[in-house]
Amino acid sequence: MPVALVHRVVSEAIASAPAGVLYGLIADATQWPLFFPHYVHVERLGFDGAQERLRSWVISEGRIHSWVASRELDVARRRVTFSHEMTDAPIESMSGELTVHSLGDRSRMELGLNFTVTGDAPADLAWAERVAHATGRAQLDRLAWLAEHWLKLDDLLLYFEDTVRFEGSSDAVIDFLYRAENWPAELRHMRSVHLVEKIPGVQVMSVDSLADGDAQHTESVRLCFPGAGRLVHKETVTSALVSAYTCEWSVEPDESGLVLTARHHVLLQEDAIAGVLGEHATVADAGQYVREELSRQGRLVLHQARRHAAGGVPVR
């Protein structure tokens, strides 16, 4: 069997930001769904402080892709090396490194991607090189922008959660959350839900609802882990004040029974604040408005899920 040729693509970018800030953004991949539009979710499977395994779900060319990667974090050299344990055809293998070099008050990032293509068919190789160049360039440009706006981003990030406690069937709760296409019949703010599940456990959902009395349209990718009592989602089409929004629903036992929690993670859209809330509105005003609206909608789902748990009857 012929040995597959290893191809390499290198991308570079300069950022007007300290190297430490850039390295921090690269090292904490669990935050990438908030910062990179094409990332849906990153799950940390293991971490010992230097080596970690991650499973990532991303949207690329209209499809949802997932892979597991091993990463080694080298803080001293500000370098992260990685190797994909599973890839999508025609990519046979993928590895590389991302290094940050300090240039005083600026930094240079270098991303090297090494990959093999099954059979080295010219069309497949051209596609792989095009995607590697485009995604590498986009990732570095986004990292540079994030690092250059890091102090402002701190004010634009929101983390909060809502919980309900209940006794009853956790399976009924997860079933209710999973079958979101049935929500309009039970949740007064939902006008319509269209849900497609081509890959088991991966749902693409569009929702028309009422937010503060106004019509609102959002679209999401949902990843369902019913055996673990969890469901995570990321909005791919958001409301006006939101740049990125992810949420995790989870059912966990405690001393009084079961706890259902919705954990919200939001990156505000600063440029939209004046148009939505008025020219004198602040980032704090926008944060309060978004938090109250997401909590209001989330609590409606939480309390309806609790009612299903009490009855123990799955949604049909």
From TrEMBL:
InterPro entries: Polyketide_cyclase/dehydratase (IPR019587), START-like_dom_sf (IPR023393). Coiled coil: none annotated. SUPFAM superfamilies: Bet v1-like. Keywords: Plasmid. Pfam families: Polyketide_cyc2. This is SRPBCC family protein. It comes from Streptomyces camelliae.
